[in-house]
């Protein structure tokens, strides 16, 4: 359709991560992701990419305490930023109006792919096993600049049930 890229769009990403155990049943984890997306800047559709290469990044940091209350539970605090396009722009060209002579006029609108904010997520989760193959997790989170928009926030609490077989 009109919103597709003629020659497609390719993305490649690489994530580097590590986890380090600290005495006292603590562990620290970190990861960083960078992604490169390429698309054809010439389009016969409604959208045109103004840059043939977009860069995106994400990261996560975590601190976990094992055996917090019992011998099998975990408490984990994490800070992360979801994958986000750092910069780039597109244009949208569409039919706008007919003038008094019946001539159709088009309009081109610029779309900035760089976000106004940088979402940062904070999460605290307590997990304990229910059975050999099932875990129960209780968590609370706060998202600053939610959806990468300045001054938009989100928060909540929840339950996670994990089962393996």
Provide a brief overview of the structure:
The protein is built from no helices and ten strands. The chain has strands at 9-22, 26-39, 47-49, 53-66, 74-85, 89-98, 104-112, 120-131, 134-144, 154-163.
Model description:
- The chain is mainly beta.
- Helices cover 0% and strands 66% of the residues.
- Strand 8 and strand 9 form a beta hairpin.
- The protein is elongated, with a radius of gyration of 23 Å.
- 4% of the residues are buried.
- The mean pLDDT is 88.
**How many strands, which pairing sense, and closed or not: the largest β-sheet?**
7 strands, antiparallel
* DSSP summary: helix tally: 0
Q: How does the helix and strand content classify structurally?
A: mainly beta
Please estimate the helix content: under 10%
- As a whole number of angstroms, the C-alpha radius of gyration is 23 Å
| Mean pLDDT score | 88
* Outline: elongated
Strand order of the largest sheet: 1-2-4-5-8-9-10
Task: State the end-to-end distance.
Answer: 43 Å
- Low-pLDDT segments, ≥5 res: none
What's the count of strands? Answer: 10
Please indicate the percent range of residues in DSSP E strands (runs of 2 or more): over 45%
Write the H/E string, N to C: EEEEEEEEEE
Summary tags:
165 residues; seven-stranded antiparallel β-sheet; three-stranded antiparallel β-sheet; 66% strand
């Amino acid at each position: 359709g009109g919103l597709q890229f003629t020659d497609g769009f390719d993305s490649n990403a690489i994530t580097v991560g590590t986890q380090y155990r600290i005495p006292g049943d603590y562990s620290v984890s970190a990861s960083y992701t960078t992604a490169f997306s390429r698309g054809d800047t010439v389009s016969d559709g409604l959208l045109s990419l103004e840059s043939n290469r977009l860069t995106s990044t994400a990261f996560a940091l975590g601190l976990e305490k094992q055996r917090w209350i019992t011998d099998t539970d975990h408490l984990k605090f994490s800070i992360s930023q979801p994958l986000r396009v750092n910069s780039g722009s597109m244009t949208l060209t569409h039919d706008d109006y007919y003038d008094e002579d019946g001539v159709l006029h088009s309009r081109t609108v610029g779309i900035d792919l760089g976000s106004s904010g940088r979402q940062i997520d904070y999460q605290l989760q307590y997990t304990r096993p229910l059975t050999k193959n099932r875990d129960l997790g209780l968590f609370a989170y706060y998202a600053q600049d939610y959806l990468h928009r300045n001054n938009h926030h989100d928060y909540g609490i929840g339950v996670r049930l994990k089962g393996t077989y």
